[in-house]
Amino acid sequence: MSIIGTKLRKIRKATGLSLKQLSTKINGKISISFLSDIENGRSNPSFENLKLIAAALETPVSYFIEDSKDSIFSSTIDDADFIHIINLLQDFKDWNIEDKKELLFYLKAKKVIRDSNHQ
């Protein structure tokens, strides 16, 4: 199985979509059998098809092509739940300052709690 295929299967299953449902979300532009071939490493999508798949899964294209070993999130990037967090942060630059401060406060507080539990 290819890296793209592995990641496609992981994110598709995490979002609860069947191959048929994913194909439908892409308006049938990519067939069920081709999606299956990608997942099983028998085919590779063109960049245009990868963009369609990523958009249908509400996932950045970079998720499929980034080598997770080189990522700052290397231990979690392959965790399908983590992708949902990344998706929520896609528009972070457009958040108002109060929302940004609230998120930062939460993350700092969570770290303090985690650190105190490990002592």
Describe this structure in words.
The protein has 119 residues and is mainly α. The protein folds into two domains: 3-88, lambda repressor-like DNA-binding domains (434 Repressor (Amino-terminal Domain), Orthogonal Bundle), CATH 1.10.260; 93-119. It has helices at 3-14, 19-25, 32-39, 47-56, 61-65, 80-88, 97-117. The protein is elongated and about 50 Å long. The model is unreliable at 70-77 (pLDDT under 50).
Question: SSE layout and pairings?
Answer:
Layout: H1 3-14, H2 19-25, H3 32-39, H4 47-56, H5 61-65, H6 80-88, H7 97-117
Helix pairs in contact: 2-3
Provide tags for this entry.
single chain, 119 residues, mainly alpha, 434 Repressor (Amino-terminal Domain), 0% strand
Summed up, what is this model?
The chain has 119 residues and is an all-alpha fold. It is 61% helix and 0% strand.
